[in-house]
Structures are given as structure tokens and as C-alpha cells.
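Practice set, problem 2.
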Amino acid sequence: MALDGIVIANVVKELQDALLGGRINKIAQPEKDELILTIKAQAREQYKLLLSAGAGLPLIYLTQNTKPSPLTAPNFCMLLRKHLNNARILDISQPGLERIVNIKLEHLDELGDVKVKFLIIELMGKHSNIIFCNEDMTIIDSIKRVNQFISSVREVLPGREYFIPETTQKADPLTIDFDAFQSTIVSKPQPIGKALYTSLTGISPLIANEICHRASLDSEDSMNTLNEATAIHLYRNLERLMEEVKTHAFVPNIISLDGSPVEFSSVMLTCYDGHEIQRFDSVSAMLETYYASKSSVARIRQKSADLRKIVANAIDRAAKKYDLQLKQLKDTDKRDKFKVYGELITTYGYELQPGAKELKTVNYYTNEEITIPLDPTITPMENAKHYFEKYNKLKRTYDALTTLIKETADELSHLESIKTSLDIATEEHDLTQLKQELMDYGYIKRKYSNRSHKPDKKNNQKKTGSKSQPFHYISSDGYHMYVGKNNFQNDELTFQFADGGDWWFHAKKLPGSHVIVKAGGDELPDRTFEEAAKLAAYYSGARDADKVEIDYTLKKNIKKPGGGKPGFVVYYTNYSMISDTDITGITQIE
């Protein structure tokens, strides 16, 4: 996570400029570890300050968004309302380059006396907290209480003295001189990057890597390989970066690859050459933009975890069943041999003596000599009958297994398509459709329903399609392109939405989305064909591959086989092309 001391310094500067002298007129606690303070600034502007002590997503930034609060406010929220309602913000500071923000507040107590309090936001991963203290730094309470059984380093409980835990002896990068740098950091027998971020307060692995890159060093090289000149060069790059922090020369930016955010920082990251860079005027806007994307993906991932587990287990069972069926099918390969044995014994068995253990004769199918084992306790004709019975049994097994293997292969293909749909789901409505599909095919039990488990695809599409909509893109040449998010949408796009003259795209022999290009009777330009193929490649099970083979044809050539599962189609006339999965630059319409 890149919410390091430098980003915190940028946030503190922004909060100082906007909130100093302002008054808190509303406090809400929408989540158990999150606060939203509504602050009326001196310029009569109103700001919302989000404070989150979430272990996985600690945050602090200004926002315009609101969240619903519980009907009954939590105790910590009520405590803050009691003390800090209409409190004035005296100061906002950061100790050194720690991931800590101190908000100094002034308010009137019950007797009308002026009192000073501190609201301390610690943004330290799983140790994140929001702590409310008296002027003498005695803890009044915290959003997360920490007792001796949780931490042996520091208790965070009412009545305890607040202090910053010094569990590691780190130097302040804002004040460190070269002698200290050389004695405490350069002397470490560690990779350069690790030595930097483990020795300096507020320096993340990302920033450590950036310092190394600016110094033209590999962050994985060992510190003890540096000579004095190179160590000085490394220190000077650290010094120049810290000068940017001291002078508040912040440049909030997000680094993206293929349209997906990779990292963010408040300094320019030269180590991400070739990536897209989006700059922001406000660090709050940067954080909100970055985490809106990341939290949306994380939220969908979390909500789809149960469905993923169900699909993974079903795929595992189906794959084991498929392997067993293939093995059983291989065992039927000798069925024709038993048929030939029976025929040859019937033809030449009259020559055998009673009690013969084998028949040596010429196989009239191959003109080769063959030896057929016999049971000496039964007659030749009974031996022939025995071989014919074995042949018929294996033939019945072969016929049954051939059908079962196709059904299992179709089931695996269906489950893989659902797995791919889970990977591209972006909204809770998408998960609703996927859950419905799993219920229709018996992977999830229905609740409170006595209806048949036979899937009613038409009704399901009508029921769920109105909420979750396909992705909608427009090509560089102005043609509308639609991408199904799941099998129900694939069927709806192909067989209800598309006209016969529209173009259909799909990754060859892979689970993935149907892509429909509305041609409107036109002959599509090559660039639109290429962009539609990119969408089909990106929204397929081979998203991470460099190249994907794409089949495309007119929609009129696509057929739905009888009894086919959702999203399953057949076609016998098509073109193919090789495409990459880079959809950067293709315009998506919300």
C-alpha cells in the first residue's frame, strides 16, 4: 500500500489549507472503524473529512460523498459528539514523517471553560486506529480498544497515556544527515530498497524503489556492495526527494496500466516508465479516485467469495468425474477385440479338441495369425458366447460413457464460463444473475420453493436482465459494441438484441463474453473489427494472455442447439483473427 508518510504529509498540508479555524458541526460513524466529520471552514465552505481505521484500508481525505449512518450511533461517535460538537480546529500536524495525523481541537466544556482535545488518526495497516485524547495526552477513548492480550507493546484504553510506539528504531528521513545515513543504513547487509524502507520512517517500498531508480541503482542489489561515492549519490537522491516534501512540492498522481490503477503517490514516480499517469490537483481527489476503484473491486471480490467457492468445488468435482470417465472409456478399447474373438471361435472352433486352452488361427480381418485364450472347462461355442457378452457389455459402456463424457465436458465448459463471468463482474446485480444461474442448474439449493429445478432461461433473463446491463463501448469509428457480463446476457445479446446483419465475436474455444457490434447495415471498418476482437479477448478466460484467437461471424450464422446451456452456441461459418487483450483507448459508455 502506498499510503506512506509522503502521502500523509500531502494530506496534512491540504487539510491545513482547507480546515484550520473551521468548526465541526456534524460527526457520523457509518462503519465500525470509520468517521465522517462535517466541518464548516472560515470561508463558510463546508467540507466532509473521512477518517478510516480499517485494517485493510486505512484512509484520510476530504470528500463530497455521504454514507448512511446507523439509526443508533455507536458509543465512540456519541462520545465525540458530546465533546467536539462545534469544536474549532486549531492545528493539523504530522509527527516527522509518521503515518499519523494529529488534529488539535478547542471546545467549551459543560461549565463553559475552554478545553483542548486531540483526535489522533494512526494509519498503520492492521494497527490503524482513531484515538481521542485530553490535552495532557491521556486517552479518553478510541474507535478500536487495544488491551494487553492484543498488544504487548502499547495498550490503547481509556486512562492510559498516549504515545507513538517505537517498536523499531527508524531514522527521520527529513532530518537524517549523511553520517547517520551511512552508519545506520548503508552498513546494513540487505537489498538497497529494503534497507531504506526498514530504516527510515514513512518510507514505503514504493518510495524506496523510486529513490533507487532515481539513483540508477537496482533496489535488489545489496547495500554492502556500494562504494562511498555511490552511497553519497543515493543519499543525495533521498535528500532531493525529501526537499520536495519539505517545500510541499507535491504532485498527486495515479499510475495505471491498461486502464487499471496500479499505484499512487504524491511525488512523480519515474520507476513506472511506459505507464499511464493521471495527475490531480488534490490529494483527496487522488485517494478517492484510486480507492473507489480498488474498493469496488475488493467489495465485489468479497461478495462473490461464496459463489467462487461453489464454482471452484463444482469444477473440481466435474474435472475428477471427467478424468474417471475418460479412464473408463479407455478400458473399453478392447471391445472390438472380444467381438473378433467370438467370430473367429464361431468360424473355426469346430477344429478344436475338447479341453483346448487356446485357438491359433488366421484373423481374416488382418490376415495375421492370432492366438485366442480359451476356458478349457467349457465348449468352444460357450467360449464364443462369453466373448460376445464381454463385447456387448463394453459396447454398452462405451455408448453410455460417450454420452456422459460429452455431458461432463459441457458441464465443465459451463462452469468455466461462470467462473470467467465472476472475474468480470463489476456490480452486485451481476452476482445476482450468476447466483440465479447456479440455482437453476442445481449448484445452489433453492430456498422456499417447490418449483421444478429445470431452468427457465427466458423467465430468468427477463427477471434479472433489467438490473445488470452489458458493458457498452463505442468504437473509434462510432459503432456501438456490447459485451455480455454472463451467460444470460450473452444469450440475450445474441438472440434477442442483435440483428442478423450485426457482427458476433468470441474467444475461440475459451469461456468468455459474446461481443455484438451493431453494424446498422454498414460494412464495418477494419479498426472496428480489431477493437471488437480486443474486447472479446479481454473479456475471456485468457485475459492475461498476450495473444488470443478470436472467432467472428455475422449473427445470422449463430445457432442455439436444443437443450444448450446459457451462453452456449454453435456456428459453422466464421472468420478468425489473432488479437491482444489491450482495450486501452476504447471508449466505454456508462
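Problem 2, part (b): a different protein.
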Amino acid sequence: MTQFLPAVTRRRTALALALLLPVSLLFAQPARADADAQSINARIEAEPAFRDAKLPLATRRADLLGRLTLDEKVSLLHQYQPAIPRLGIGPFKTGTEALHGMAWLGEATVFPQAVGLGSTWDPALIRRVGSVVGDEARGFNRINPAKNGLNLWAPVVNQLRDPRWGRNEEGYSEDPLLTSEIATAYGHGLQGDDPRYLKTAPTLKHFAAYNVEADRSRVSSSVRARVLREYEYKAFQPALENGAATGVMASYNLLNGRPTHVAPELNELVRSWSRDDLMIVGDASGVGNLTGTQRYFATPAQAAAATIKAGVDSFTENDANGGPTVASVKAALAQGLLAEADVDRAVGHLLSIRFRLGEFDPAGLNPYEKIGPEVINAPAHQELAREAARKQLVLLKNEGKTLPLQAAKTRNVAVIGPLADTLYEDWYSGTMPYRITPKKGIADRLGTSATVNAEEGIDRIALRSVSTGRYVSAPTATTGGALVADSAAAGDEQAFDVFDWGGGNVTLRSVANGKLVSRAGDMSLVNDQDKPNGWFVQQKFGLEKLANGNYVLRYRGNEVKESWYGKNQYVVLRADGTLTVGAETSDGAAQFSKDVLVSGTAKAVAAAKKADAAVVVVGSMPFVNGREDDDRQSTELALGQQALVKAVTAANPNTVVVLESSYPLTASWDAAKVPALLWTSHAGQETGRALADVLFGDYSPSGRLPQTWYRTDAELPSALDYDNIKAGWTYQYHRAKPLYSFGHGLTYSEFRYSPLRVDRPVVSATGTVKVSLDVTNVGKVRSDEVVQLYSHQRTSRVEQPLKVLRGFQRLSFAPGQRRTVSFEVKVTDLGSWDVTRNKWVVESSAHDLMAGSSSTDLRSRSAILVRGEEIPPRDLSRVTSAADFDDYAGIELIDASKVRGDAVRGTKAGDWIAFRGVRLGQGVRSITASVSRAGTGSASIQVRIGRPDGPIAGTLTATGTGDRYQWSSVSGAVDSRLARGVRDIYLVFGAGDTNIRDLSLR
């Protein structure tokens, strides 16, 4: 860009001189005037219009597009967009991770995990956090513009439907309103406030219905229209409508049988939500999966063409190597699968964002261009990290007012647990510049006159080979080395500290050098890692006890589930005694006896007995307990940690338990005996100070849970069941009593809620209701309170949620202060998706409005009557999509074609779909449907009345079409004596895989 700056200056100078020339001089010297004009025009022509910051963006973009060759345009479709030297255009990279701080670029301010940002319920704070992250992104960009790009891949708005999802820490909440409010705030902060220029360009991840890591590129999320519209899309749409994001990333999964990277909704729906151009990007290898794991297209050219036509503008493939992407797009062009106009549209979207970032403008216009590396981890950013860590803490329980602890009386504190004196980063975390651990935070708060001791509460063991009688030794060098069973006795070199993370996962720390045991590339075990790390976590093991009392070591790194990985998971001994992964089953594994050299629980109990207070910090390790590409099988707190909590609580009744985790924890253990319980996410560099602020009453905890905490894993539906309504996911539909409810969180004060007031008891479908109440801090402590407003629709054609969050405000109250809290509720927001007419509808019904401090602690209520409409009986005389059913059992939603449309697959006898309240008049005589069967032979679809086992009114026979995308129209007679009036119609599938796209009754 800089080589054009002199031209810009010359052009403006020439224009200014021309305007200053006296008119008489111009007339007196026509030849010279003509020459000057020609010179000026030449200079204007020499300066491309796309460099003219005064021109409209659309004009500049069109000019630049017109100057690019087809090869140059194709090259820009890859994540690493190359430089175009002849136009003075530098390289540009899409995708810099910025989930809760700048990631993977070196030391940067690390804020709480996204789930922790969600637990603040504080959009104003999150906007400030986003602004700081945007500043640091600019700082890193100044260091290396080609590598540290300004297109940020954040925030993640996938809702936290299932706490077992490995990426739970990346999202904000299970609720669409809370998710969208936090995401909008973070996005606005990342972008900045300038009306013209972007500080950074945030990208929402991942569209859509993505909550499973297991086999994620092959699994299809089967999601009916109501759930998509009322739940999934509501996290993405508000952020885009409010201009808080410049792009969207497609997800790995298939949605109703079609890979999201070729979903028509990208162009047709997602782009309609934004008034500005969007840059839609693929996830890493997402386009490659179309011909790879998904086998959806036969050739890369077909995949590239379909991806671009669906709306993806940038291919995230093959790391920095754009060659394969360029080749596939060129092949698609050569084969007529793509037109140059298709490429132009995609490149135009990309260029729009680059223009808004100020890349092609002269220096001095963009207010963000002066931000440099000095802002990274600035003191003000550290303070904000502490504030965010403090505000995300949730006080779950506080019996007998155990908290806050009195600093003057608490002079000896035992900080206990595997997380007592360490802080962990997650996969998308930045590198912490410093680490204020719980122990350090407490020690700093109490000062040097207090005694603060840390005990990890973990066992130290030695392993002795049963076959050789030798103990396993580890090298003492800091670089580590191979573990060998070679010692006759057990000393420090033979000692290992065992961290129990639950689910059968442990990590082993070698006492010899303080390093973790890891599986090396040659399959041997080595002690050379500071912490669990890497894409495939090599530091996860199982210490499994056999029936004979001996133990075997099992390698549990998350790559063992990959189909290309060998079957060996168990540790054996080589001839020289070296430990190596070399057996498929425990039968072939080396057996060890386990000597407990030091009992971690005993040491913890001894410390707790001597202390004025015990603070037990337990929870998860982000690289071990699930993460991207690795779902959890359980949300239960590790058994070893449970035992530690019980022992310490029994030893010291003044015990506070801190749960530090990336997800909700179930409690099969006796939580009733724990007097005080706090939850925190892995909250970054200031975790310890924030925790100390709350423990000693310098700050009243006021975070709220952004997810339901279920009592047991047994309450959770299948991870593959995305139907919140039918499966009972989230507080909206879950009927069992939770361990801790959505929105729950205590403070050190008490609040009184007045009766709820509404400005009108009756409102139209297009109206707005103003809701207000008075909230008073009746306690003696200044504290925030998160006032939450919910609604429930009493009557409806369809099942409605138990309650839905309609608004929230986090407000600060001085002791005794009363504040009037007001909400405005648009009645259109109370609507639901009507599958009978494919539109939003507001039904006539009474709605309960409820305010309180959580979804189950609702202290103030009122009601309104909405005058909307009554959904008429269904009309199936017109051709109706089979996917627009009202209810179902067993079926799967699939793609009707590779381009657009949904269909229904019945996979076994007894699967069914239902259409409620169908107007049949005096009786219908036939049914016609589009069906397909990839197999041979025939299968039936019965038309039943009233219920799945009701009277049979007709039958359709589907024969093999050879291809499931080959649809055949079939008809069958219907008994009009049964199919008359207004009835529920069931289509019940017989044996055999059969698909139905649409139907009509006449």
C-alpha cells in the first residue's frame, strides 16, 4: 500500500493547485491550462479508484475486482490470500483465534473462558473485554501483518445444549437470548465504535446445530424446523442483525443430511440477517471433507463449485498452501460447474471486509492504525481481566454464611486440591503472561503475617513390574527420557504423582524432574512435558486395576479413536525394560503392583486440621476432560477429587469448595455436607486474585450460571438428539429438578422484589409490553443483582417451553438501595414457528411474566393477554413438505437433494411422522407422495388416523429407485369414511429404508 501514498499526495496537490489558479490566468494561457488539465487527468488515471477513500465502498470494490485477473481472484479464495504486487496489495489471512483473548500468538491478556464470560451476564463488561482483545489483535498485527490477521474467528455462538460437548468452554450459554446478548457485546467490542472502519472483523462460529465432536465431520444433526428457528438460529441472527459480526464460519457436521459447507441457508438466510456484506468462511478442512470423510461429492471440483455457490467465500484448507484450492476452483471453472461471476461474488465479499479494515486507504484516516504492540497485556487490560474473573464467579451454596471469610480471623489457610496452585490454559487460550493461582491470590490478600499452605491432595506412587520385580524409573534431566523398569528400590526417581481427572483419565507427574509422562512418537513412555498439550493429548493414561489386584497402564490419548490409529493402547515392557504402548488389550499388557509412597488425602487432612479455613480447589483439566475433537463421556467430578472433598470437609468444617471447570459438574457425591460452594471457569491470569476478592468479602459474588447443572448424567438425552423440545434439553424443556438451575447464583446480600407491573393487561400481536418492578438491597453489603425476566405461554397449538428468558439486567446496589427495573417485551418475540404455514406466528393466549434471580427462583409475577391469531387446521390438499411434520418417532431428517430441501427417512418398522389437526372435509380419497429408496424391493407407508396404531386409512408402496435422490411419485387410495373432518394423520413406515419428500391428500 505504501508505494501508492506519494501518488495520492501528488494527485491532491495537483487538484488543489488547479482550484487555486486565477480564472484570468487560465483564460490568458489556454495552452498551459490544457496542459495542466491533461497532467491532472493523467495523474487521476494513474491513481486507481479503489485507493480513493472518498468513493463509496461498492464503487471501490468494483474497481478493484475489475483490475484483478481471474487467476488473482481465484487465489484470494484461500485462507492465506497472496499478495498482488502489481497493484500494491499485500497478503491477507483470514482467521486469527480470539475466543477469550488473542490465542496462539504469544503472551497476551487471558480472560476467563467464554463460558465464564457468559456467567457474568454483563454485556457492558463483555463489550469492554472485546475492545481490549481487538486492541491486542491490532498490536499483534503490527508485529506481523501477514501472519497475525485482523479477521478474528470469534465469538462462538453455538449454544451449550449438552454439557458433555467437548467444546463447552467455547460457548456462552444454553439460552439463545443470553448467548446472543453476550456475543453481540463481544463482537461490537472487537469491531470498535468507528462508523466507517473496523478495528477487527469478527466471525461467528459455527453454523449450525454443532454440539458433537465424536465423528463430527460425518455425523448429521437431525433438527426439525421449530428447533432450528426457535433455538439454533436465534444465537446467530441477533448478532448479525445488530452489526456485531462481519462473517460466519460453517460447521463440521451435516445438517439434516447435508454438509453445512454447502447449506443454501448460508446465502439465502444468513446473509439476509446482516445489512452489511459478510465474509463466510469454511472451517479447517471443511471443504476437503466433502470429498473425504463425508463422501458427498466425487471430485474436488464439484465440492468447490457447490461450496462457493452455497455462499462460502474463503477455503480453510491445507494450512498455508492455497494450491489445492486454486486447482479445484479452476477445474470447476473449466468444467462449467462455476462461472466467473460466482467467483466475483465470493471475492467481492472478501474485499468488502478488507476495505472496511482500512487496508487500501492512505495513512491517517483509520483511527485504529496507530495501535501497536505496547497495548498487549497493558496494566489496564490486567485490571479488566481481574474484573471479568471476579464477575464470572458463581456462589452456588453458602450455608450458615460460611462466606465471606474474615481476613482478621483467618491467618492460617490450607489451599488444597489439584488446582490449588496452578492455572491451566485451554486449546483456544492465549499464553498467560503471569499466573495468579488460588494459593498466590489468597496469600497476597492475607499478607506475609498469614500462613498459606498448598497441598495438591494427590497420591505419590511407585510402579513395580510383576514379571521382573523392578520399579519403573524416570530420568532426572529436565529434557526427560524413556521410562524403564530397572530399579530394585523406590526412591524419587521411581515416584510418580497421580492426578485423577475422572472418567478413567489420570496424568502422571514424574518426581524425578517434575515433568508429565507422555507417549513419544516411537510409542515409548517419556517424562518430558510440562502439562497436557497438543492436538492429540499424549499425556492421558488409565491406571486400571485387574481382578488379581495388579494394575495395567492404558494410553488414553484422544487420537486412539481415530480409524487410522493402531489398536495398541496398553503398555508393555520391551526386553530392556522400557515402557512402551504395544498391546491391544489388558491381557497382553505388562502388570504392575502399585505402592502408595505418600497419601495425598492424608497430607491434605493434616493441613486442613491445622488451618483456620480450608479452600479446596477441584475440577477439570481443559486438555484432559474434553475439548475440541474430544467429547466427555461424563460430567461427574473425578472420584479421587470427590474423596478429597469429603475428607477435608470432615477434617475442617470451615471448608470452602471451589469447582474450577469448563462445564457443569454433576454431583453424585454428598454435596449437602459442603457448607460453601463456588464455581469458576478456567478464568485466566487473574483467577487467584478474583477468587481472593470473593472469599474475603472484598467483592460480593454475583455471577449466574449460564447452563443448567443436571443432577446426574442419566438425565441427559443422547448427544445426537438435537430436539430440545422432545428430548427435554435446557431449562426451557427439562422437567426434572436440576442440581443448580439456569441463572442460579447467590450473593453476600439479600434482595426484595416488588410485585411485577405491566403497562397494559391486553396487547396486540404487534405491540410492546412494558414491564417494571422495584428491587431493593435489604442486606448490609453492596452487591450486584442479576434481575431476570421470563415468560410462559399458557395455551398453544404446539408444546411451548416451560419458560423462556425475555430479558435480564445486571445492576449494582448499595445497601438499602431500591431501584426500578424496567423491561420492554416485543410481543412478536413471544411467537413460535408455525410449520403449517412456514412462518412466525403469535397465537392468542395468556402469557405469564415472571421476574426473579434465577429460572427457578421467580419472586414476582403478572400476566398479559395477547390478542394474536388461532392457527387454522392444516391443509394437506396442497403439496406439503414431509419435513413440516408436527411430531415424530424414530425418523431421521435428510437432504432431499444435494442443493436444497429436506426429506424424512424411515429406517425401521414403526417409525412415524404426524400432522396434527388436518382439515379433511367430507373425506379424502387418495394420498400422493414423492418417495425414494436406494435399495431394491418395496416398502410400505401406512396412513393411520388419530395415533400411530390407529385405524389404517390407506397405504403407499415405495419401490426401489436406485438412488435416494431419485424421487418417484406414488399414490394410494384412502378410505374417506375414516379420513374426514379434522383429524391427526400419521404416516407409519414399514420395514426397510424409505424416504418421503412431500405429500398431498385429496
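Answer key, part (b): Residues 68-373 form a domain with the TIM Barrel fold (CATH 3.20.20.300). The two ends are 67 Å apart (CA to CA).
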